[in-house]
Amino acid sequence: MRLFHKIILGLFCLSILASCQIGEPEQIPPATVKKIEVSAGEINVYASRSLKPGAFVLYKPIRLIITINNAELDKKIPRQEEVNQPLVKSYELKETIIKATEEEPEKKAVQITLYLNKNITYRISSTDYGFQVALEE
After folding, report:
1. Full-model pTM
2. Per-residue pLDDT tens for 25-35?
3. Among 10, 68, 106, 113, which one is most buried in terms of CB atoms within 10 A?
């Protein structure tokens, strides 16, 4: 009886291994940035899926640079806008191509530049619609 159990267990393990895919990971298509809303202390970025951007502050002029890898801009979204909020004057959007090495395929990225009125601290949170940036003086 023990031999029978070992054979059944072996067949079960073999069927699991046969169902596993081996090879290149599936490429996720670029997210589409569809809309940006800027209010007094908050920026909401709406996209086709949740996003995890990187960001940093530059000075002279003061601006917050947000980079979203594997993303592209919707054709209808404005590329720059004056918002005249207490912390944010305006923003610019642009698409870039990232290619780390010659072997890697090119990847799209979106850069959001927020022109600020003063020094700020920021906190980025992923949401199911894209992400949110909370700004504080």
Report:
1. 0.78
2. 557 889 999 99
3. 68
